[in-house]
Amino acid sequence: MDLTSLDHLSQDELWDARAAAAYDTPGTDMFAPEVLEPTVERLVELASGGAALEFAVGTGRVAIPLVERGVPVTGIEFSAPMIARLREKVDAQKLPVVQGDMATTRVDGEFSLVFLVFNTIANLLTQDEQVECFRNAAAHLRPGGRFVVELWVPDLRGASRTAAAQVFTVADGYVGLDVIDTVDQRVVSHHFRFDQDPADRRRATVGRTPHRYIWPSELDLMARLAGMELESRHADWSGNDFTAHSGSHVSVYRLVQGHGTR
After folding, report:
1. How confident is the model at residue 218 (pLDDT cuts 50, 70, 90)?
2. Theoretical Cys-Cys bridge with 138: which of 180, 191, 226, 262, CB 3.0 to 4.6 Å?
3. Rounded distance, CA 220 to CA 228, Å?
């Protein structure tokens, strides 16, 4: 498969009204309390009593609980349908959102925390865009402020020239696999969802999303280019140690005093 075949898809096409309608899964998956509560708890701590800015705020999965914990949050979100879904839950006075991309869009104010969760920085498909995302975060931070990135660590041990695809999830009614291009650090995730009607379980729908994966060391270099330095890295929001076997990480970067590109 040519991994560039999805590059022509705009973010509007990827995150359309159908995607927004299906995004929230209350009480399960990334909305499960055991996933969401440690995330919110850690972000409250990192905000240190100041205001926060979420890149790719989506439908407010993290931002709304943060606001409810007393942290003022502003969001940036590219997808109008995702913003509309968020607006069904919270008004603009309580959680203002600016429509735009996370690599270039600026909002008013200075923040003690900018955060980007659930692998979303990988939705930027070039290294240049990812570097600009770090610079945009730095431009919004007060001196000493923090930028937090949650991201998966690619496991390429099963990839080869003859087996470029890896299964990452098998569940009831769902199979997920990644097609990997190690030259351009591209992944296209394929989501196979099977009809749950017992009479026709042979029928399936397929969704595909492109990503550019980033190694932790590469993230650290992007941070340095933006005037930030790594403060901490853990395997998860609960603070477990990051090791060679960790499948994801939560990295906290601090803006070095005297830096910033606003």
Report:
1. very high
2. 226
3. 9
Q: How far is CA 58 from CA 83, 100, 171, in A?
A: 7, 12, 25
Number of domain units in the chain: 2
* Residue 160 falls inside a structural domain: no
pLDDT at 99: 96
| Whether residue 99 sits in one domain with residue 23 | yes
Domain hosting 56: range is 3-154+215-255
Q: Looking at the domain assignment, is residue 26 inside a domain?
A: yes
pTM for the full predicted model: 0.85
State in Å, rounded, how far the first CA of the chain is from the last one: 41
Q: How far apart are CA 129 and CA 135, in angstroms?
A: 10
CATH number at residue 58: 3.40.50.150
Question: What is the per-residue pLDDT across 88-140, written as a single tens digit (0 to 9) for each?
Answer: 999 999 999 999 999 999 999 999 999 999 999 999 999 999 999 999 999 99
